[in-house]
Task: structure prediction
Amino acid sequence: MGVVDKFAIASPVGRIVINLDQVIEGNKQQNILLENGDKIHAPPLRNIVTAMGHIQMPTSLIFDSNMSVQDYINATGDPKKQADTDRIYVIRANGSVMLPDSS
Result:
């Protein structure tokens, strides 16, 4: 079962994206209210980028700040013919989503 398949059957956990650096710096607008029973899960820091979808060779690559989204796609052997290249998106490490053509 692939990662995308696992997302399809996963039950929601009430996930929220926070800007922890801003919370720590005391930015009140970024602060969140925790209630009894709330849990915070901070996954381990990984320096990898995983490319998947309709690409030639889904794979994980070492993160390089000099590489663009297109560079990572090219490193996988480019999109397959059936790929919808207008709908490419990036899920950042903090869980937020970025559309490369608009950011």
